[in-house]
């Protein structure tokens, strides 16, 4: 496994701060200026990349109202697949404009292609990476086509079992993909945190010999922040301007302030992991003097015994360590000692 991959000059891996992808998805709500504003807010929040979804209602499904094409329950209840994607898709002609906007903002942009024509479009725009969506993980011809670009690839694994994930990874590698990240994902919108099973992230990395991350559909940041400690080096979250905006994905997306907090907190979580260490840290060194030690708490005459009344374990830490208390009690002082003096070994009459 590579220790890192590189997208648009940014290294991504366990030794680097988590890579945060702001998924724009359908949250443009048919307005390119809204898409621009989401990109601006993502940049301001500290996200590393904006991600699009590249499909049309004609390329992702067909216009058919038979039962198999109906959506029952959930966010999109009552629509056909064709109706959903007609309203949600990113117009083909917007892509170049959004790539130009990303360049202006100095933020990385790439997309999830859903068919070969989308790959061709994104190749013409020189996309620096590709994302395979969970629902497309079983589309091995699409994965092979993306792998042949030679670009870094990110895969989401929602709904996929171990065999399907292995097939997708093998397909990517056999077709030339050398930089791969596999994201643990639950394809629920929103997805309950208790169903995320974050320990899977480390298993993905070990089982498939890949870098691993998280595609998070929960409605807050707790799951994503926790995932960093379990090995996620990349996190993808849907973003919007207003969770109540009425768009297809708005209701389970982060608003700008929440995205900024995600960027901040995941970096803090990553920094806090560090390495195995039992030595004092720099933050601790100045506080050693405030640990407990043995002190004279009543004046003691020469030859007087040390007792629980005149020697105690208290703060600060300039005296003998408390572990010597039992050895000292009952022995005699070799000199006059005063209240408030730290206990020393040389005060004992041997």
Features:
350 residues; alpha/beta; TIM Barrel; Type Iii Antifreeze Protein Isoform Hplc 12; 2 domains; two-stranded antiparallel ribbon
Lay out the secondary structure.
Blueprint: E1 5-7, E2 10-12, E3 19-23, H1 32-45, E4 49-54, H2 57-60, H3 81-88, H4 94-105, E5 108-113, H5 116-124, E6 130-132, H6 140-147, E7 153-156, H7 162-174, E8 180-185, H8 200-208, E9 211-216, H9 222-229, E10 234-238, H10 256-273, H11 282-285, E11 293-296, E12 311-314, H12 325-328, E13 332-333, E14 348-349
Parallel strand pairs: 3-4, 3-10, 4-5, 6-7, 7-8, 8-9, 9-10
Antiparallel strand pairs: 1-2, 11-12, 13-14
Pfam family, one: NeuB
GO molecular function, one term: N-acylneuraminate-9-phosphate synthase activity
Protein name: Pseudaminic acid synthase
Describe the overall structure:
By secondary structure, this protein is α/β, with parallel strands linked by helices. It has 2 domains: 15-55 and 90-273, TIM Barrel, CATH 3.20.20.70; 282-349, Alpha-Beta Complex (Type Iii Antifreeze Protein Isoform Hplc 12). Helices cover 32% and strands 17% of the residues. It is built from 12 helices and 14 strands. It has helices at residues 32-45, 57-60, 81-88, 94-105, 116-124, 140-147, 162-174, 200-208, 222-229, 256-273, 282-285, 325-328, and strands spanning 5-7, 10-12, 19-23, 49-54, 108-113, 130-132, 153-156, 180-185, 211-216, 234-238, 293-296, 311-314, 332-333, 348-349. The strands form 4 sheets. An 8-stranded parallel β-sheet has the order 5-4-3-10-9-8-7-6. Helix 6 (140-147) packs parallel to helix 7. The chain is elongated, with a radius of gyration of 30 Å. The termini are far apart. The mean pLDDT is 96. This is Pseudaminic acid synthase. Residues 293-350 form the AFP-like domain. InterPro entries: AFP_Neu5c_C_sf (IPR036732), Aldolase_TIM (IPR013785), PseI-like (IPR051690), PseI/NeuA/B-like_N (IPR013132), Pseudaminic_synth_PseI (IPR020030), SAF (IPR013974), SAF_AFP_Neu5Ac (IPR006190), SAF_PseI/NeuA/NeuB (IPR057736).
